[in-house]
Amino acid sequence: MINASSQASPSAALRALYRAAGVALATFACLGAARAAEPIKLGIVLSTTGGASYLGDPAEKALKLYIDRINKAGGVIGRPLQAIFYDDAGDANRARTFATRLVENDRVQIVLGGSTTGTTMAMVPVFEGAEIPYMSVAGGVNIVEPVRKWVFKSPQTDRMGCQRIFADLKARKLTNIALIAGTDGFGTSMRAQCVKVAPDYGVKIVAEQSYGVTDTDMTPQLLKLKGAPGVQAIVNTGASGQGAAILTRNYGQLGMQKIPLYQNPGVASKSFIQLAGAAAEGVRLPAPALLIGKQLPDSDPQKRVVLDFTQVYEQGTGQPVSSFAGGAYDALMMVVDAIKRANGTDPAKVRDALEKTRGYIGTAGIVNMSPKDHLGLPVDAYRLLEIHDGDWKLVQ
């Protein structure tokens, strides 16, 4: 005869075993989900305060806005983006300190930012040494020339700005120009590039002046340019905070409007127009298509991209769109796309994927990178704009 209690014992044991197995499976499932949801750590260094805040502040707003949108949509490859932000206030030494912190303490996997050429170049050796992909949002051509294995950038270069301006000068038959250069990193870099490419366009630089990042009056320099013989146009290469707006106001106060003034692409925001006031009327500059999206023909592949970004940015921030916000958006979207194509955050694989970016339609243009080109934008990605009635007007 079989004892009832002895019959129940194996069933109880089996039930306990099944429960234990279920707990183990659930635990493994949770661990797997936790691993799958491990955040992708992005380091972001921008100049959100200080003299270059007009660059860094809109960039930060765009990045926060889109990182939040991406995470709400499920993240990237099933993982949320975790952004670690630092404000270098436009100081190269602070930027390098934060770069080191991102590598050694925060253990980030990818870095975006560098609002200015100076802060970017201060951080480059840190990320190159750590072998971490770095996408700059600054303008200097020396960021990507010569090509550095781990360094990329999203906006056009200062050289492209010179080329776009000089092409317009040539079309207007203005061949004798004066340069006035800011002593900031972008200003000195763009000045050097303008000097280098001027002969290619038959442009002769007949006078030069410079101004410092803290100067509050450029009248003496402008008077010298006004009195220089043969000057047919003035090109400002300085992008040092309010410097370009002060220069433009001084230009207007001196009644120099008969001499066309060209500004550099670093002033491509509505804040410049507001700061410069009426003196900005007629000023020309190269800028991305983002600023004149509605003026683009329907056949332009960038039109839908820039209009969609403008709508999201302006509704999300309550501020007018700027090219600096667009540059940050492009940087983020190219990094996200590279992570997807690399199917992970292995630095070498993400780097390789970034280098293979082809046909990306962004706010700056259509990007086609290669091992020899870590920017991937043509010169004509810059549109030539003129300030008209307090707004941007597409010239060509």
Automatic annotation (TrEMBL):
One of its GO terms (biological process) is amino acid transport. Residues 39-389 form the Leucine-binding protein domain. Gene3D superfamilies: 3.40.50.2300. InterPro entries: BCAA_transport, Leu-bd, Leu_Ile_Val-bd, Peripla_BP_I. Keywords: Amino-acid transport, Signal, Transport. It holds the Pfam family Peripla_BP_6. Belongs to the leucine-binding protein family. This is Amino acid/amide ABC transporter substrate-binding protein, HAAT family.
